[in-house]
Design a protein that fits this description.
Helices cover 27% and strands 21% of the residues. The protein has 2 domains: 121 residues, MutM-like, N-terminal (N-terminal domain of MutM-like DNA repair proteins, Alpha-Beta Barrel); 124 residues, Helicase, Ruva Protein, domain 3 (Orthogonal Bundle). By secondary structure, the protein is of the alpha+beta class. The strands form 3 sheets. The chain has a 4-stranded antiparallel sheet. The radius of gyration is 19 Å and the shape is globular. Helix 1 crosses helix 7, helix 4 crosses helix 7 and helix 6 packs across helix 7. The protein binds a DNA duplex through helix 5 and helix 6.
Length: 271
DNA sequence: AAAAGCCCCTGGATGC
DNA sequence: TGCATCCAGGGGCTTT
């Protein structure tokens, strides 16, 4: 479900409200992708300092250690003073002095992992190979171009891989490539300087726009306060196979790349 | 080093 | 109505 915009929207929706909260109790449901990595007792009495984001991970800083939260494909966080009773797929529930944080995740590809610090091997394994943050100053054009030059794989898959730039998932990869008029199947290394610069800009543009629109709610995404996103209404190609391109009217094509669907306009994205 | 495939898991949509 | 099949916002791990 969640790409950078959905994760960031989630973060923004509860970061201030949970800051300063004391952890009162923690309940675990069925196993998520990885074990929590510490005892529940270790979390009790901790204070939540802040909530940050790195790629598609949320980092919940505690006065001692931090929790790495990933939403996987179907995860949603909810933070509420008066939470409803635990639902079938609530697999992590943390009661605090400011409210209850729940991770609802039917497919259980998500995770909540404790680490002593970001330098902890547990954290390094998950965060260590992540690429540049596309919405920060750190998203350097030269580095982006140099990274593309050494990859012969299809540009769409290089974007998804996350080791060059983070946070771009299946929706926004297709959307950014449309904005930049680049065919998703083109080898990354074959992009000209001008076109990779255009893509660099398009990535920042589409992600920022999606955050502003509250993310994309395709079936069930909502922020930690239950708000739906609206970016899906302005998607140019994602999820629109055989429908007319909003620019030129050509039927949008759908292809398979690395067992994921890719959408593009064969006219606007000639190569 | 980079690329391609394989999984993990549940549920909704579609087709017979 | 029932059942089989396919598909879904991710990404770590293993194999080429």
């Amino acid at each position: 479900m969640p790409e950078l915009p959905e994760v960031e929207v989630t973060r923004l929706s509860f970061a201030d409200a949970i800051a300063g909260a004391k952890v009162l109790s923690v309940r675990l449901g069925k196993a998520l992708r990885w074990p929590l990595g510490c005892s529940v007792a270790h979390l009790l009495g901790r204070t939540v300092l802040a909530v940050r984001r790195r790629g598609k991970y949320l980092l919940i800083d505690l006065d001692q250690g931090l929790l790495l939260v990933h939403l996987g494909m179907s995860g949603r966080l909810n933070f509420s003073r008066h939470p409803s009773a635990a639902a079938t797929h609530d697999h992590f529930e943390m009661l605090t002095s400011r409210g209850t944080l729940k991770l609802y995740d039917p497919r259980r590809f998500g995770a909540v992992v404790y680490a002593n610090s970001e330098e902890d091997p547990v954290a390094r394994k998950l965060l260590g190979k992540l690429g540049m943050e596309p919405l920060s100053q750190d998203f350097d054009l030269k580095q982006f171009q140099a990274g593309l030059k050494r990859r012969k794989a299809a540009i769409k898959q290089v974007l998804l891989a996350g080791d060059l730039v983070v946070g771009v998932g299946n929706i926004y990869a297709s959307e950014a490539l449309f904005l930049a008029s680049i065919r998703p199947t083109l080898s990354a290394a074959r992009l000209s300087r001008a076109r990779s610069a255009k893509l660099h800009a398009a990535i920042g543009q589409v992600l920022a726009r999606a955050v502003a629109r509250g993310g994309s709610t395709l079936r069930d995404f909502s922020s930690a306060t239950g708000e739906n996103g609206h970016f899906q209404l302005e998607a140019m190609v994602y999820g629109r196979p055989a429908q007319p391109c909003r620019v030129c009217g050509t039927a949008i094509k759908s292809v398979r790349q690395g067992q994921r669907s890719t959408f593009y306009c064969p006219t606007c994205q000639k190569a």
